[in-house]
Amino acid sequence: MPKKLVIVESPSKSKTIEKYLGKDYKVVSSLGHIRDLSTTGKYGFGIDIDDNFKPKYEIIKGKKKLVTELKKDVKQSDFVYLATDPDREGEAISWHLYDTLGLSDDKYKRIVFNEITKDVILSSFSKAREIDTDLVKSQETRRMLDRIIGFRLSKLMQSKTGGKSAGRVQSVALKLIVDKEREIEKFIPEDYYEIEANFTDFIAKLDTYNHKKIEIKTEFAAKEIIDKLSKAFKIDSIDKSEKSKKAKPPYITSTLQQDASTKLNFTSKKTMMLAQKLYEGIALKDETVGLITYMRTDSIRLSEEFIKPTYGFIKDKYGEDYLGYVKVSKKTENVQDAHEAIRPTSINRTPESVKPYLSNDEYKLYKMIYYRALASLMKDAKFSSTTIILDNNNYQFKATGSILIFDGYLKVYGEYEENNDTILPDFSTYKTNILAANDITYTMHTTKPPSRYTESKLIKEMETLGIGRPSTYATTIGILEDRGYVKVIDKKFHPTEIGIETTDKLQEYFKDIINVAYTKEMEDDLDKIADGNLEYTKLLTRFYTEFEPKVEEAFSNMEKKPPEETGELCPNCQSPLVVKRSKYGSFVACSNYPTCKYIKNDKEPPQEIMPCPKCDGKIIAKKTRKGKVFYGCTNYPKCDFATWDEPINESCPQCHNILVKKGKKIKCSSCNYEKEQ
């Protein structure tokens, strides 16, 4: 019978670790948190406000049987190791296990590890420690703040606007999206003109007049300048220099989510799910092993255990000239340096060597993580840069180009970085300093409004502003979508009507609390609690004393928006029809609800795209329960034809199967045929 019990968070992790420890150990899973705040007491907080914000916990629904089994395992063991994740949330889970299971101080220890490999797991036992109560208090305080704000503001919004929820972080993130939308609405486009001189080997653009920047606002002004120019350009200066480009540091949680979004088209939720699998363990040919280190981190630090073998790998495979240096972050504020950056657990497990054991998406993410970490320890790329200035009647034209002379880290990371370098001719071979342009042209452009947030840009903005934590970005964004506060159109966030109204109401009554500065300050205070530099009750008392009176005022004074009448009467009871909102958008229904449950059906009949290739039905656009568009047959369920890609009424010239739209291209649904739209 095993004498030592190890409790981790996930079943997949427990299976991997148990293989490393042997028969004297039993490894079990808590399946995440086993307890949470109850919904009893004032406002259902599960917090005794009057007793120094004492929390009241209860076993999470569905976890009572698990807790009973864990208590049985503890009883049958001589010693217990709490091995939950190496962060605040993991520390809190360990404390809840300690408290709920009735562990004694002399028969338990807390162990942490940043990667799930045999050597690291075994060595973690030699570094066993007590639970860090400061970390626990920080997480506990965060949970209580989120509960108080979430419960009170959500109830307020539900009663006044029809909004589903509000929260400490989600409402600030929503405000960023709404503010951006208003910037776009206020934007006034302006025309401007660019003048180019086209030479045989390159193009130069008008940059300055008498070496001062020039702006061309009208077509008349552009034509007037061109009339003053001749085809002959004098070389004013040629500047040659060598420039270096540094590799980016290894990934942290936020940068991984950003790059996975832009380079792999993964949502933050999907990225974290895949990263979790890579961390917890992948079954390879001879072993099950975690391929990456812990994926919730905001430190770019790399351990010597990784750096040393990686330098050897670089030297052996690419040569000594490619050996770089360790990147050090200048940003130290709010960085949790408890564990490393996200990196492969072994540099020798190349993406190609583990590809057969990974799904396509797992492989893509692992490959990106692997080469980012490898590149971070390689030498800078070097470019030869040339800038030429040409003068024509005191108008200066400029052309810049560069040539890669040493690839450095781009040797392994080139596919992940865009290269828009322009190559200029070798002007030293020219026999004259007068160049003749083939022609001189002008082009009209229009200034563009600010770009809406993509998921990647929103995460970057939240990180920059100190809103929330990287580990919660995916959850926060998911909530905004689920509540119907934003819609994603062409990968960009658009606030909905209810999202804008909710933001405006919160701004009216809680502008001193629901804003970037206050939220960042709160994150800083939570860090102070984690470091043992702030008493958690002081933060909660200060917050609640300010917050609760504002909530009471809002409940009393905030106007409830009356439903918008359409001017029509209900065909069933003759009551006015009104516009109502849901997470799926606006709809028209009877104002006499729930007595009358009439809902007006304004849906237009679906447009037929093409005949079904499998039967005599028609292909139309449909939606899943979550609102995702797909294309299926009108004869469903008799016909099961369906596709996520929009089909076109055209057959493949090679295999005669249907053609579908994929980005800017039209591709065959069956073979490799493709063409531009």
Question: Could you explain the architecture of this structure?
Answer:
With 677 residues, the protein is α+β, with helices and mostly antiparallel strands. The longest helix is centred in the first third of the chain and has 28 residues, at 133-160. It folds into 6 domains: 4-131, Rossmann fold, CATH 3.40.50.140; 141-186 and 452-557, Orthogonal Bundle (Topoisomerase I, domain 2); 191-246 and 381-446, Topoisomerase I, domain 3 (Distorted Sandwich), CATH 2.70.20; 253-375, Topoisomerase I, domain 4; 563-603, no CATH class; 608-676, no CATH class. It contains 18 helices and 31 strands. Strands 9, 10, 11, 12, 15, 16, 17 and 18 form an 8-stranded antiparallel sheet that branches. A 4-stranded parallel sheet has the order 2-1-7-8, with helices on both faces. Residues 331-337 have low confidence and may be disordered. It is globular and about 90 Å long.
Number of strands: 31
- CATH homology superfamily name of the largest domain: Topoisomerase I, domain 2
Q: Round the Cα radius of gyration to an integer and report it.
A: 31 Å
Shape type: globular
Helix residue percentage? 25-40%
Which sheet architecture does the biggest sheet show?
8 strands, antiparallel
- Note poorly predicted spans: 331-337
> Can you tell me the CATH class of the largest domain?
Mainly Alpha
- CATH architecture label of the largest domain: Orthogonal Bundle
Counting structural domains, the number is 6
Query: Which structural category do the helix and sheet elements fall into?
Result: alpha+beta
Which fold name fills CATH's third level, the topology of the largest domain? Topoisomerase I, domain 2
Percent of sequence in beta strands: 15-25%
- Averaged pLDDT: 91
The termini sit apart by: 67 Å
Q: Number of helical runs?
A: 18
